[in-house]
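fyi for ur records
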Amino acid sequence: MAAGHAWTLERWLRHWLQDNRHHLRPTTHDGYRKHIDTYLVPMLGHHTLADLTTRQIQATLRVIATRRTTGGDLIAAGTVVRILATLRSALSAAVREGFITTSPAAAARPPRPAAPHAVLWTKRRESDWRLDSVRPRVAVWDTRHVTEFFDHVRDERTFALWWVALLCGLRPGELAGLRWRDIDLEEHTLDVVQQTLCIAGKTHHLPPKSMTSRRTVTLDDAAIAVLQHHRDRQEQESFGWREDSRGHVFTCINGALMKPSTMSHQFLKAVRASGLPPIRLHDLRHGAATMAFAAKADLKYVQQRLGHSSPVTTAAIYISVLSDIDNRQAQATATREAEHLVADADHLADHAGLHVVPQHRLGVGQVPSGQAQWLRLVCPPEALLRGFLPAVACGYSEADHCSQRRDPGVGEQRGCSACGIGDRSCECVRQRETAGAGERE
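which gave:
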């Protein structure tokens, strides 16, 4: 075919990209452009379509796989796979339009990408990191790290941002696109209906990543209290803001839209200032899934909450962290840590003279009791929300305790950190004592 000898790959790639600009999502178009400008044109662009061979493409992929990013890391195998996918799409279009008879990229084989399994920041991994500064590719904080972090940022205006990122599992783009009209504080729901991304220097408000990413997330009492506090603070700051700045939940202090890159930068600064092991903003999403799994949440529930297209994706990426801990041992450890953390939270709240009674209590069917145990471990800013979720220590629902709940009087011994019963008659106290006796036997 004469056209195949007349067109170089560079000419065809630029023609193909320009011709499809209105049919591609902005993120997809920008990804194709980067692959073409950074790799395909410099390395293969001088070949004609007719002369390009599978062997040349395969050799190029091997070279790309040896290159390093600006941070010094090898280019990820997944990036090489996506570069080849861009070339295959372009050459398939050339076949359809009659420039060549077959695509030489069809038979090329990229390196097999390794799945990004998350690992827990155990004490051993943290100790090793402090010695040699080597960190896992994808790491997740445990409950102790989460509590220390929120204690460190409790007075920051970004407290609510990190809270929603961790406990709701939203992507950075979804956080940036979140508007107050997407949140129903009365019904305790958050609708993910758009994402905000910065592409080639321009801000785009786009639909969620996929159909399953468009979802409704149930909010617990703690999240409602944190968001209400955040909205009150934002209203005090918003004098003089432009009208179009008032709709988004998370903004810069001057009312400007907070981009995902800004969120990531501020999060990294907060993590460094806290002295905790490093994680990325996106790793808070891993943490949301990990805590839900450790709290015995259903796989389907976690998949829907995170907006994954398949439970297989959820299990493959996020559940792997549980291999670091025996499940029964993790549950026992979580219960013991929860009792200490709740006692500390109560002490701080008593000292500050604070007590918040929730405006709405979720039923057992709305928030899994196990997930509620983990959510209870972290205390929001001024309020600390004593007793805002189902019981931590024994996993009973709020309905089991609310009829008996009361604050201990002066000099009265708190019998149960979950329900506040001052004597030893609380059922959950007896259940823990029975379980403890069984373990000793």
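Residues 327-352 form the longest helix (26 residues). thats all i got for now
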